[in-house]
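Shipment paperwork, digital attachment
Item: protein structure file
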Amino acid sequence: MDIRVNTNKLDRTNKFLLYVSAMRPLLNRRALFTDCTQEYVKPCEPKAGENVKIYFRTAKQNVDKVFLIHESEEVEMNFDHANGEFDFYSIEIQMTEDVFFYSFKILSGKVCCYYNQRGVNKEMQPYYNFRIIPNFATPQWAKGAVIYQIFVDRFCKGDSSNDPVDREYVYIEEGISQVKDWNKYPATMGVREFYGGDLQGVLNKMDYLQELGVNVIYFNPLFVSPSNHKYDIQDYDYIDPHFGKIIKDEGETLPEGDNCNAHATKFISRVTSKENLEASNQLFIDLVEEAHRRGIKVILDGVFNHCGSFNRWLDRERIYENQEGYEKGAFISEDSPYRSFFKFNPNGRWPYNTAYDGWWGHDTLPKLNYEESEQLEKDILRIAKKWVSPPFCADGWRLDVAADLGHSSEYNHIFWSKFRAAVYEANPNAIVLAEHYGDPYNWLNGKEWDTVMNYDAFMEPITWFLTGMEKHSDDFRGDLLGNSDSFFQAMSHHMSRFPMPSLQIAMNELSNHDHSRFLTRTNRRVGRVAGLGSEAANENVNKGTFREAVVIQMTWPGAPTIYYGDEAGLCGWTDPDNRRTYPWGQEDIELIGFHRDIIRIHKENKALLYGSYKELFGAHKIIAYGRFMEDNLITVVINSNFEEKEISIPVWEIGVRDGEEMERLILTTETGYNIGQTSYVVDRKMLKVSLPPISAAVYRKKI
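Attachment content:
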């Protein structure tokens, strides 16, 4: 149908509107923006029944209509206000108990496009809809918090009287050993080596952590366990006395040739004596109180998918078999009260029944049998509440291999809903974050996990972009090195799977206890310690690239998480080489100073804690992005080329206007960093800068 308009018959007003429409510039797609931060969703963490005002930004006088789309229904938004170069449209929605999914439709002349978490699209893409989860909020203290991960045995030795000693017991068929040289590299099979780090050592270094700028300490497991990593829990109710206090120290170590732990009387005394266990718990209480006094939170590591063969509920090592005050373990007796905690093969026979399920077949890691044991579920939920309640008062849990728990996906979700409810009931200001590889969407529903260790939307894209390396140093991808399009696409896709309250507290790590140290990845060498040796992890590393990564870490949405020693220049291949001791007395002082300064910048700018994020520019080995909130407007630029680059960044997209000044807060290079402030005037809506090779810079609009 051909509709022709006779303009002679229009009144003057309509003639003017038609003229304006005809003169309107093409749709400015780069100006279109919204997200779920508190600038665009008010309130951003609503309760059911509350009215929420949702905003959408366009270029000034650039669009005809904006619609909010919810469940295929399009509702026109109202013009709300103008600010600088932008118009803002709004709509008010009353929340129900249900998750609110939405996207946007924009009309400008003959142009129609859609907007979701991936930005502007030609078609609707429900997979990337925004979502608001009523009644789901994450604590303010966790948003953008600087977390410091401590692997206790390797951080600092504060008490020699609790050190594990040679052949105190046998672990995986060999006697454990005490390492006398703090600076020795971990052995290739170093799980039986103990360096003697403990909670007193952490207490002794509280000044250091506070001066660094740490908001949260995340501890790898602290509970009684035979390994140095302690992911095979022996007793969930107590801190390991080797990390805590040994008041009662009796018995003997195992003589050579005797590998039966039932004879390890020194070990049995140390880990079953209530004097030692209670004293160790008290030391943890003291540590948390001291951390809280300094404004530092504490997160515990919870290993609830499996336990260890030493665990008192199973007692395969016969540690508790003859100890007063302990029930018989399920390995010892068919009549054990813990029999249902484990799944035994029908052909197994007692006493000393070895026919139980192990996680991935490992008999040292018995799989916990929740579906067939109501009591097990009750006990673990009791543990969940215990450690976040007085007198312990921890501030949350990190959950090991959380998606593996249980024997079915259905039960897994049921359990984590119960777990979070239990934690929240005991401590409404605590958090529950999970170790998870892959899409966390189904668990980040406001009822199970609060967030995750952020591999997909942080560690991996940054590692590929800056180093071309896989996070274990197991592969090199030249096609991903410096590929800004791949970087931004990966980040955008994976970040879209988080609701905003989860993204703002996501654990953004460069390194941890399961992967190679980031500084080692900068050497772009594929390998592990068994094949290349420990020293090779220190060779040909690039501190300039590492500084670039830390700048991204401290300016990206989420909670930047430092693996102990990274800030001091620690290197290492993947597990176990990544668990080297903190190099006290041999620290890289310049790197520590850099971390203090970039952490200070992170904490001083609210846009970096919970502001909006927007991609601004990408080219080969160059990325630029903005973080912005109210008048706190931040631009971050990375140049990973080996030559200087002139870069023009469209800072108008985050609200910086022509003639306004931006000040450089920090510049990093291959040789160091500079926090001397330099000002730049925005010209023709662009910030024009020259960045040296292998550098990163952070700019802020002057107020």
